[in-house]
Amino acid sequence: xxxxxxxxxxxxxxxxxxxxxxxxxxxxxxxxxxxxxxxxxxxxxxxxxxxxxxxxxxxxxxxxxxxxxxxxxxxxxxxxxxxxxxxxxxxxxxxxxxxxxxxxxxxxxxxxxxxxxxxxxxxxxxxxxxxxxxxxxxxxxxxxxxxxxxxxxxxxxxxxxxxxxxxxxxxxxxxxxxxxxxxxxxxxxxxxxxxxxxxxxxxxxxxxxxxxxxxxxxxxxxxxxxxxxxxxxxxxxxxxxxxxxxxxxxxxxxxxxxxxxxxxxxxxxxxxxxxxx
Length: 277
Fold this sequence. Notes:
Residues 18-241 form the Beta-lactamase class A catalytic domain. The structure is a single chain. This protein is an alpha+beta fold. The chain has eight helices and ten strands. The strands form three sheets. It has a five-stranded antiparallel sheet. A hairpin with a 2-residue loop joins strand 9 (222-231) and strand 10 (234-243). Helix 1 packs antiparallel against helix 2 (91-101), helix 1 (45-58) crosses helix 3 and helix 2 packs across helix 3 (104-114). The model has no long low-confidence stretch (mean pLDDT 95).
């Protein structure tokens, strides 16, 4: 069955950046303002994982290397490390926490280990000019701090996910390691909600043969989901971002509804099956 791609109704009170591309041909399947730059919350953590994986591949970091959590960058909210009794973990486990739970404290620990400027340079070094990780995760973002933890466009973020899936980010080994950390992402509440996967167990092919590797970002004025999903009928890379900073209403309901509508078309495309089949 062929998908008739159609952009769902997008609440015009939000700023949107959307791009869905075929995973093999790179052909655009669906897009809306793909070059609009949005604040992307936790999405920039992908570039941290890329830098960690690159250093492991180069031998300058070890998977089993234990890392102390820096007290000056203590942070709570997203993740579980801040609630754990023993917070001294190895590099591999910290990266897994970032991939699985977007763990803020694990993020800051690895950022401190690698150096913020080095991680800021990852996206530009890969050729992305409008997308990057920009700062540590903070409990409060005051005017004297960088304006956002990360930013990006749908065009560049969809390409990041396509390139990871193709093994083109530094090397196949580096790309595969990053995807392995992202494989356990437990947040399937946005675009990926329509894939109907088990949120806690989808490392391997799951519902209707789909394999998902993705990252989400969430703030009180933003929802972002970027990923790569494959199935028996094909694969796509996608990036969907919505910001509504300064809007009086909380737009999460209409934003998430639109994301799910996009996700349903992606599911249909990669599986060839209608929802009721």
